[in-house]
Amino acid sequence: MAIQPNSAFSWQKSSYSGGNGACVEIAVPAVQAIAVRDSKDPDGPRLTFDSAAWSTFVAEVGAGTYDPA
Question: Which whole-number Å values give the CA distances from 28 to 33, 36, 48, 51, 56, in the listed order?
């Protein structure tokens, strides 16, 4: 699914973003899709993931898989 830069979805930031501007935002443009964009570049590119891939990513982040060594 292609997500157009001017698409008007309800984008949300993480409550952990701390307001420093260094975060991503997500939207749910379709039942089986999650869109992700850089909050500093709202008109820039977006990535789209299916719900299974997104769930796996979120679980791995929670487990510390991507924590720096």
Answer: 6, 9, 9, 10, 16
